[in-house]
């Protein structure tokens, strides 16, 4: 989930990028059969329906993510681009930043992934097993229609964002919330999962099916009902039920945070997710590069003077990642 997104723009047309220049640019994605949609097509369509700019280049979708950055879709794809190739995309697309999973240098990170085949309570850690069982007994689990989410989702949105000390207009502004929900309903592969306690919505989770992957992309919950463990029950049931679909091989449950979140990391691992490592490659437009050194020094100074400021720490990590990602050479081995 990102903070304020831009108003709707026409998708950037980059058909010429990979074929017209002296140095063709190609984000090296897995080959696909004729007529098969590019991986990430459903995710890209969902972002586009929300008004988030997207474009396709070399079989890879790029969508506006946060601040100046566009990111690669689908989430599991590791993009192999050298810094010079990234700079060409940035110049021709007229965007200010790219961030994407890669084996090349960057910030160490990873993608939480599980294979649902054979999943059950035995795969859950002992510390979480009782919470899952309690949640399954206390909660009604079912899918929601978009109109039901439109009506019942806002209290959970406000509760979750307040609990996390965040703001996101997509989930707080009624007009943008309605557009978001309509995008969920109009996009192929989207499902709204819900956990109810005594008839009231306690947790909702939105997933996107994309080929053999199921991506869990948004989750909001009620603080008052956390004692009934609706999050545990819903997360467990989604994996368990996915095991019945032989065409669904993997479930992705988000990336590691730029700033470490030990509690969330522990929760996902205890449910059975494993961290598929990658490096987060971060690149700014070439004309911003000369300013990076001064910006890094300024942020470091502010961090030292005002410790504990999460916003400053986040910016410092982004600048560190941009510096690491400028290193040339062969793909680097990601750190676990």
Structure description:
The protein is α+β, with helices and mostly antiparallel strands. The protein folds into 2 domains: 17-110 and 277-325, no CATH class; 121-242, Aminopeptidase (3-Layer(aba) Sandwich). 38% of the residues lie in helices and 24% in strands. The protein has 11 helices and 11 strands. The protein has helices at 17-20, 41-49, 83-93, 126-138, 146-163, 169-172, 174-186, 230-242, 262-271, 289-305, 310-325, and strands at residues 54-57, 60-66, 69-73, 97-102, 107-114, 140-143, 190-197, 200-210, 213-221, 250-255, 274-284. An 11-stranded mixed sheet has the order 1-2-3-4-11-5-10-9-8-7-6, sandwiched between helices. β7 (190-197) and β8 form a beta hairpin. α4 packs across α8, α5 (146-163) packs across α7 and α10 (289-305) runs antiparallel to α11. Residues 1-35 have low confidence and may be disordered.
Largest sheet geometry: 11 strands, mixed
**Could you give the order of strands across the largest sheet?**
1-2-3-4-11-5-10-9-8-7-6
Oligomer: single chain
- What is the distance, rounded to the nearest whole angstrom, between the alpha carbons of the first and last residues? 24 Å
* Structural class by sheet pairing and helices: alpha+beta
> What order do the helices and strands follow?
HHEEEHEEHEHHHEEEHEHEHH
Low-confidence stretches: 1-35
- Record field, number of beta strands: 11
